[in-house]
Amino acid sequence: MSRPRKVHVKSFGCQMNVYDSHRMADTLAPAGYAEAALPEDADLVILNTCHIREKAAEKVYSEIGRIRVIKEAAATEGRRMLIAVAGCVAQAEGEEIIRRAGAVDLVVGSQNYHRLPQLVARAADGEKVVETEFPVEDKFAALAAPRRDIIQRRGVTSFVTVQEGCDKFCTFCVVPYTRGAEVSRPVSQIVGEVERLADGGVREITLIGQNVNAYHGPGDDGAGWSLGRLLRRLARVPGIARLRYTTSHPRDMADDLVAAHAELPELMPCVHLPVQSGSDRVLAAMNRRHTRDDYFAVIRRLRDARPDLALSSDFIVGFPGETETDFRDTLALIEDVGFASAYSFMYSSRPGTPAADMHDQVPHEEKAERLQRLQALITRQQRAFNARQAGCTLDVLLEKPGKLTGQLVGKSPYLQAVQVMAPRLAIGSIARVTITEVGSNSLFGALAEGHPAPQLAAAGA
Ligand code: SAM
Ligand code: SF4
Questions:
Q1: Which of 43, 121, 213, 401 could lock 252 by a disulfide, CB 3.0 to 4.6 Å apart?
Q2: How many angstroms is it from 447 CA to the middle of ligand 2?
Q3: Cα separation, 23 vs 141, whole angstroms
Q4: Can you point out the beta strands (E) in 318-374?
Q5: Chain segment 15-72, per-residue pLDDT in tens
Q6: Which residues line ligand 2 (CB under 6 A)?
Q7: Does residue 393 have a cis bond before it (omega within 30 degrees)?
Q8: Distance between CA atoms of 447 and 429, rounded to whole angstroms?
């Protein structure tokens, strides 16, 4: 029998890539590939790339340079290593990657992961393989499911992609080009995957998609299900205690999804709702198809349903033509809403997108200065949000051991990291924790009187 082969997958970018990386490893497992924690131990290294901003692609090229050195060292020991580039840079740049980085053996776009075993076999035969088509077959149905022991190793929280691609065409964004048109997975496929994960000990599922609340996958009844309906169904899967979803678009926040926040105890009180800018002029130039007032209206509906909701967002500063007044509108929006956290980026010109050709590109120094002001405001809000938890008792899903003996680290309902001494509790249980100290990156607490937390009833119980 041949020596077991090993694959190391490194993810860049968003949660969708983390999920895809797991599914790539799962698909290669039946072909005899075990996962390697380090590239040095691997026969196949896959870089799962992100193309959302310019620097992200540059990072990939420098990473290829690092892996090439490892590949050359392996060759001197008589061992052959293959390098594959997957994800959105692969989709966008295709053959260019092999031209620019000759050490790469395989370029595979985001819609072709289910074909990896055949593509890798071709690359192993010496062919330089580039596969970036959008095939007609259902990639998700063709991807192998993870084994139970692998699910257990990956921990008690998991992402599940329910929707891919985007039809919104914001003028700054490459996603509609790299991930293609919006597609929703069928309900039965998602329920099956969540049941399998729950059977392997997963307690929290985050449903992911570039535009997750536009989900409209077919149910067995032939009807298109909304995200709200899907969440209600998944809340009944035995063992699943917590549900989250990300990333949402303000235009797709349907009433039944908002209502789910009031009705479902399993649905965690967090919504990531990117707004990008607080200026109507900039929002229109971005083709966001909503105004700042529309955004405020969505926030009001959400907070009416769930007053303690933790809101987070994405912001782009220095979009072409953004003036100081536009930027101040963004700061004012942040002040008005009050966020628990946010991601913020300097606008990065992406070739092929409409904004790349717009006049009035904002100079780098101005973008950097605005980003700093915006991040300072968000940091203040984040600290204030965390400080409000001091003295409160929260349910914490325990995810992994902490640094100290007997210490466990978990997440609050609001996605805050919480550290607690709980030597007798198992990972995967939900502890009631009273917050005693608020640090800059984590909350610290002690098990509350009356612990353990009431565990959610299993489905159908
Ligand atoms: N679908 C989500 C939405 O509607 O906002 C987000 C998808 S995108 C993968 C994640 C974030 O990257 C965006 O919300 C945006 O803030 C940022 N982003 C996308 N393109 C960008 C660009 N060209 N320059 C800077 N940031 C960008
Ligand atoms: Fe990109 Fe999100 Fe806009 Fe779609 S909605 S184009 S993913 S920023």
A1: 213
A2: 41
A3: 11
A4: 341-346
A5: 888 899 999 999 999 889 999 999 999 999 999 998 888 777 788 899 999 999 999 9
A6: 166, 168-170, 173, 175-176, 210-211, 249
A7: no
A8: 13
Atom 3 in ligand 2: residue holding the nearest Cα: 170
Report the pLDDT value the prediction gives residue 451, as an integer from 0 to 100: 61
pLDDT given at position 2: 56
Residue 1 confidence (pLDDT)? 45
Q: Which ligand is nearest to the CA of 287?
A: 2
Task: Give the nearest ligand 1 atom to 175 CA.
Answer: 9
- What atom in ligand 1 is closest to the CA of residue 315? 16
DSSP class per residue in 122-167: HHHTT--EEE----SS-HHHHSPPPPHHHHHHH-SEEEEE-EE--S
pLDDT tens digit sequence for 135-177: 767 778 778 788 899 899 999 999 999 999 999 999 999 999 8
Dist CA 251 CA 274 (whole Å): 11
Q: How far apart are CA 98 and CA 351, in angstroms?
A: 19
Query: Which two structure tokens, joined as six digits, stand for 195?
Result: 């049941």
3-state secondary structure of 442: coil
- pLDDT band, residue 453 (cuts 50/70/90): low
Contact residues for 53 (Cβ-Cβ < 8 A; gap 6+):
345, 348, 350
* Alpha carbon of 277 to ligand 1 centroid (Å): 11
Q: What is the mean pLDDT of residues 376-380?
A: 98
Cα 212 to middle of ligand 2, angstroms: 11
Say if CB 144 and CB 32 are below 8 A apart: no
pLDDT band at 458 (very low <50, low <70, confident <90, very high): very low
Q: In testing the pocket of ligand 1, which one of 345, 348, 364 has its CB within 8 Å of the most ligand atoms?
A: 345
* Nearest ligand 1 atom to alpha carbon 349: 23
Distance 287 CA to ligand 2 centre (A): 10
CA of 52 to the centre of ligand 1 (A): 7
Q: Which amino acid is at 71?
A: K
What's the mean pLDDT in 433-456?
Answer: 82
- If one residue of 55, 316, 322, 349 were mutated to test the ligand 1 pocket, choosing by the most ligand atoms within 8 A of its CB, it would be 316
CA neighbor of 100 nearest in space, from 71, 54, 68:
68
- Tell me what pLDDT residue 136 has: 66
At how many degrees (to 10) do helices 187-199 and 227-234 cross? 30
Ligand in nearest proximity to the CA of 88: 1
